[in-house]
Design brief:
The complex is a heterodimer of chains A (about 400) and B (about 100). Helices cover about 40% and strands about 20% of the residues of chain A. Chain A is of the alpha/beta class and about 400 residues long. Chain A folds into two domains: about 1-245, 3-Layer(aba) Sandwich (Rossmann fold), CATH 3.40.50; about 250-385, Rossmann fold. In chain A, helix 1 packs across helix 2 (about 35-45), helix 1 (about 10-20) runs parallel beside helix 7 and helix 11 (about 300-310) packs across helix 12 (about 330-340). Chain A starts with a strand and ends with a strand. The mean pLDDT of chain A is about 95. Chain B is of the alpha+beta class and about 100 residues long. In chain B, about 10% of the residues lie in helices and about 15% in strands. Chain B is elongated and about 50 Å long. The two termini of chain B are about 15 Å apart. Classes of the chains: A alpha/beta (about 400), B alpha+beta (about 100).
Chain lengths: ~400, ~100
């Protein structure tokens, strides 16, 4: 066991180094910059064999990644916020051409007004792009998921790109102790990519051909199937990873859910704060619990339904707004996941932390108490609560 | 592609719309996109080959004294009829 002090961004860069990536094409943007900055140092110092492609924009970064991935290379990129927005068009091409690209995303608010701090509006805006989405709670998880992400993405039954998300600054820039594997351990776990088809001048094939009304639909159906395969593959890979690290991952993690009457479900770093507050409230005899989603796309509908079916009230925490929608993205998905239950929990949406606004333990405690009150009365006072905004 | 042809379902198609055989675009017959077809009047045709040059699909076949259309690939854009200096090409509506 080797514990190294690293920021979340550095932990991702280190994981990418150990994953023996062939190509990195990226453009720097706060708060992701350190990922590619550290990685470019590994390249400059000759510590990796990776080809680092300097590009003029994120649109080009993702385009280069797609081309590289189609040659059979293992590919990584990273971005945040406006950068992700700029590569939006190419995200669909990466997933449509079934490129198992891994992308580190240090989540950051979208302009306007311009802001560099953490919220989930960037990746939530790309939730229908056909990318898998994993959210890390801390630097350790960012490291572990980055390594596992390559193996999940490159599985023959998946072949889809994946984003490993970490909250901008809160995880990306905070130094934590990260338990890292030996290089050889990562090598044995990942091995080299085994692509199904590759661009090869000796055996010419075509990627990106025109598909009209007569074929397009079939290829979208294939992507749906790949998403359906993720749960089983991820489970197997997480178990294998646990075998070498002792760390237990899956699609979600729970705290206190065995008897919780009121619960919070959230993504990323907020889960740590929520767990700490839940621990305190449970010591006072309050039956509260926390569900942290590691995997947001594909949405683990069955697993969520299983852990939430006995809860009386649920506060769904969204660190992004879906303007004009009934709820934030996560809340809409949770409501959909639970609608087939005979007895639904009472659900309300908590929009919080936009533009990096701090979420304090007292905020979480307030939400838990609202949820407990809802559990007691069976009445939702406010469908959507904007936690921490000034009136 | 003609509508009568049995097309494969999503399970048997190559992943990610990869085309595994080179030169296969010839198999994709775009003639059924056509709403109007060019008909060449051999009497008027002076074999100047403007149509042959302008056709974006290379769907004209050179003959010794006139031109013919390859209807497997002609999409019916009508550029040939527009460019023909002798008005030897008429666009005739396809009968389905």
């Amino acid at each position: 066991m080797t514990i190294v002090g690293m920021t979340g961004d550095e932990a991702v860069a280190y994981a990418v180094k150990q994953s023996k990536v062939d190509i990195v094409a990226a453009y720097p943007i706060t708060p992701q910059t350190i990922m590619v900055e550290r990685f470019s140092k590994y390249v400059a110092d000759g510590e990796v064999q990776t080809e680092y492609v300097c590009v003029e924009s994120e649109h080009s970064a993702m385009s280069a990644c797609v081309g590289a991935s189609l040659t059979g290379a293992r590919v990584f990129t990273a971005t945040s916020s406006q950068g992700l927005a700029l590569m939006h068009e190419m995200l669909y091409i990466a997933s449509g051409l079934r490129c198992p690209i891994v992308m580190g995303v240090a989540n950051r608010a979208l302009s306007a007004p311009i802001n560099i701090h953490g919220d989930h509006s960037d990746m939530m805006g790309s939730r229908d792009s056909g990318w898998m989405q994993i959210y890390a709670e801390n630097a350790q998880e960012a490291y572990d998921w980055t390594i596992m992400a390559f193996k999940i993405a490159e599985d023959k039954n998946i072949q889809l790109p994946v984003s490993v998300n970490l909250d901008g600054f809160i995880i990306s820039h905070c130094v934590e102790g990260v338990d890292v594997l030996e290089d050889e351990g990562v090598n044995q776990f990942l091995q080299t990519r085994k692509p199904l088809f590759i661009l090869d001048p000796e055996k010419p094939i075509t990627f990106g051909a025109l598909c009209f009304t007569d074929y397009y639909f079939e290829f979208k159906r294939q992507q749906v199937e790949a998403m359906l395969n993720v749960g089983g593959v991820l489970d197997k890979i997480c178990k294998e990873y646990k075998g070498i690290t002792g760390r237990n991952y899956n699609v979600l993690e729970t705290f206190g859910m065995e008897d919780a009457e009121a619960a919070i479900i959230c993504l990323g770093s907020t889960a740590g704060t929520a767990r700490e507050v839940a621990r305190k409230l449970r010591a006072q005899g309050k039956k509260v619990g926390v569900v942290k989603l590691w995997l947001y796309r594909p949405f683990p509908t069955e697993e969520i339904s299983a852990v939430l079916k006995h809860v009386k009230a649920l506060a769904v925490f969204d660190r992004a707004i879906s303007f004009g929608a009934p709820y934030g993205a996560l809340c809409s998905d949770v409501v959909s996941a639970l609608h087939t239950l005979e007895e639904n929990p009472r659900i309300f949406n908590v929009i919080y932390g936009l533009g990096g606004r701090d979420i304090e333990p007292s905020d979480i405690e307030f939400a838990f108490n609202e949820a407990l009150e809802t559990a007691r009365t069976g009445v939702v006072k406010e469908e959507t609560m904007f936690l921490g905004v000034r009136e | 592609m003609t509508s009568e042809e049995k097309k494969p379902g999503w399970k048997s198609l190559p992943m990610g719309a990869a085309v595994l055989e080179p030169g296969s675009s010839l198999q994709y017959k775009t003639g059924d996109w056509r709403a109007f077809k060019p008909v060449v009047d051999k009497e008027k045709c002076i074999n100047c080959l403007f149509c042959w040059i302008y056709c974006p699909d290379a769907a004209f076949i050179r003959k010794e004294k006139w031109v013919e259309v390859n209807y497997d690939y002609c999409k019916g854009c009508g550029i040939c009829a527009k460019e023909c200096p002798k008005e030897a090409i008429k666009m005739v509506e396809e009968q389905k």
